[in-house]
Amino acid sequence: HTPWPGLIEAYRSRLPIGDGWKTVTLCEGGTPLLPAPRLSEITGCDVHIKVEGLNPTGSFKDRGMTMAVTEALATGKQAVLCASTGNTSASAAAYASRAGIGCAVLVPQGKIAMGKLAQAVMHGAKIVQVEGNFDDCLELARKTTAEFSTIGLVNSVNPVRIEGQKTAAFEIVDALGDAPDVHVLPVGNAGNITAYWKGYSEYFADGLSSRRPRMLGVQAAGAAPLVLGHPVKDPETIATAIRIGAPASWNGAVTAKDESNGAFRAATDEEILEAYHLLAKSESIFVEPASAASIAGLLAASKDGWLPRGLRVVCTVTGNGLKDPDTALRDIPVVEPISVDPVAVASALELV
Ligand code: F0G
């Protein structure tokens, strides 16, 4: 049993890595695919969860970032830049510091979860708060990198990000022995759904799977441009990671949906929070709110009949719950201090 080498080494022949490039890796990828007994019972499907919050910086962004920063280093960039709702900035900061190059992150002022900000700070990134939303940040990042060629853009508009992220689909097929019938994931800027579809399609084309899944992309109801069919000017949702009104990979997402006979759907903040709690309490997986959108979408699709019983389903949960402690602690029950007494402890557990 050899240890997991990181996704570039694991899937090198399927990735655009130049000869002699020095790989920048934190051993990302190789994340668990957990069976979800409670969700399987509710939906009548065989549900598995791809737990991407167990990547090195706690989100799936590390899959794209190992590629993007490896490329940036190999092509002589002095620094990397990204726009981010938080996770991309945490990941860029970590991989840039590993590579020994600079990193700046453009984040929407006041709208990023505390844990993500802490990560960017700790890994030494320059944090630029922008008066605007993610879409404004991305436009600024694109303009800056177009003007300054020594700064590498590491958002998913950089195609190597998508290449790295497609490996999650490879891992799922490798683990299950075939592609699932349906794949559910949250959608914000739409890079990840584009990447999964590319991964599933490549394996299918090479005969490594017998089918491709129907793709179900779930957006937050207040930030659901793909569901509505047009950009949203002032996106709003508790799931700050997917608070995006004009997804850069719009076309990739639509292709994934159309070619797979899939669907987009919206989940309200209420449904997202309900799924967030269910996942933590029943499946013991603590995710951030944006990730719970995929579970909210799964439950709604099961309820309204879009998802028939008996299928094999994989849901990606994209980010770790520790990134956003504020949301977790919003409605904590008041706990009265107790006396130093075993009977008091047992009664707190409602056992006596
Ligand atoms: N889930 C989480 C936890 C995310 O951080 C993101 C995107 C998504 C889902 C959506 O993925 O954009 O590929 O459709 N976060 C980006 C960021 C925008 O800046 O960290 P997508």
From TrEMBL:
Key words of the record: Amino-acid biosynthesis, Lyase, Pyridoxal phosphate, Threonine biosynthesis
Positions in coiled-coil regions: none
Cofactor: pyridoxal 5'-phosphate
Biological pathway: Amino-acid biosynthesis; L-threonine biosynthesis; L-threonine from L-aspartate: step 5/5
Domain of life: Bacteria
Enzyme Commission numbers on file: 4.2.3.1
Cross-link position per record: Isoglutamyl lysine isopeptide (Lys-Gln) (interchain with Q-Cter in protein Pup): 143
Record InterPro entries: Ser/Thr_Dehydratase, Ser/Thr_deHydtase_PyrdxlP-BS, Thr_synthase-like, Thr_Synthase_bac/arc, TrpB-like_PALP, TrpB-like_PALP_sf
Entry binding sites for pyridoxal 5'-phosphate: 87, 188-192, 318
Stored PANTHER family: L-THREONINE DEHYDRATASE CATABOLIC TDCB, THREONINE DEHYDRATASE, MITOCHONDRIAL-RELATED
Name under which the protein is recorded: Threonine synthase
